[in-house]
Amino acid sequence: MNIPESIQESVKKEIDFFCKSLPKQPQELYEPMRYMLSLGGKNIRPALLLLTCKMFEGQIKDALPAAIGIELFHNFTLIHDDITDSSPLRRGKSTVHVKWNLNVALLSGDALLIKSYQQLNKTPSKYLPDIFNLFNEAALKVCEGQQFDMNYETKNKVTIEDYLTMISLKTAALFSASMGMGAILAGASTSDCNKMKVTGESLGMLFQLKDDVLDVFGKSKKTGKQTGGDIIQDKKTFLLLKAFELAKVKTKNELNSLIGNTKISPTEKVERVKKIYENLGVEEYANKQMQLYFSRAEKSLASIKAPEKDILLALAEDLISREA
């Protein structure tokens, strides 16, 4: 992914320092936190924050606490999401609730949330009110999005518009906040901060749609996730909703018969749904939707006069072509 090595190293160094600074006891609280942060995620959100700050010629050192705070919050959500989704794998390794237990996962996730606020509080004081306002707004949206996601698992009538609204909350809100915070910490104008929030939202939408595609069509060794996990959990993803929109009666009936079906193996269920997706060409529709969000991000960035914005465009292109 087109993230400058200096940015990657800054994030990794700060996360390593954070992990080493955690107390040893109680081990059941802090070891899962270190474990989660050691799994080797993309660190895309803190990278976007730092890249945005750098683009507006801000000081990276001023932005690092907020960047790490964002990553800690993101990992808190992942621990809890893995519980609600009953996910066995995260980044190719056992999820926290599988490796330890449910109670340990809940509590260590809560502790990561608290630590994220402690990190944010290290931000230079003149930026704190705007940073906390934006972060809190995004954090609540993530919770709202997760609830909608869970609701949709048992709701019969879910539209593509419903789904896009849900991921704008669950995923895109934190991307938007990351880039908005980066602009704030560089002292950018209100107008430019808002443009970066729009850019971040667009990249977040693109990112989640690509995740939908990789869940079904990606290779588990590369994604580090269970292949077809969304299908097994009856998630109302863009792919499934588009399939229902395109399918004829016979295919719709087959899809309906597979949703919630516990009489067939997960492997068979994934294979049959994937075959329907391939026959209907839903992956191509997802790719077209991603291009719309890429164009939106490109348009937003085009109106900003700042050096190094091409790095963000290159990163957006990487998000579309990524394999993990």
Report the structural category.
mainly alpha
What is the helix tally?
Answer: 17
The stretches of 5 or more residues where confidence is low (pLDDT under 50) are none
Instruction: Please indicate the count of domains.
Output: 1
- Compressed to H and E, one letter per element, the order equals HHHHEEHHHHHHHHHHHHH
| Broad CATH class | Mainly Alpha
- Kindly report the name of the CATH homologous superfamily: Farnesyl Diphosphate Synthase
Q: Measured on Cα atoms, how large is the radius of gyration?
A: 20 Å
Structure summarized in a few sentences:
Helix content is 75%, strand content 1%. The chain has 324 residues and is an all-alpha fold.
Description:
- There is one protein chain.
- The chain is an all-alpha fold and 324 residues long.
- The chain has a single domain (5-321), classed as Farnesyl Diphosphate Synthase (Orthogonal Bundle), CATH 1.10.600.
- The protein has 17 helices and 2 strands.
- The protein has a two-stranded antiparallel sheet.
- A hairpin with a 2-residue loop joins β1 and β2 (93-94).
- α3 (44-55) packs parallel to α9, α13 (238-246) crosses α16 (282-302) and α16 (282-302) runs antiparallel to α17.
- The longest helix has 28 residues, at 190-217.
- The chain is globular and about 60 Å long.
- 41% of the residues are buried.
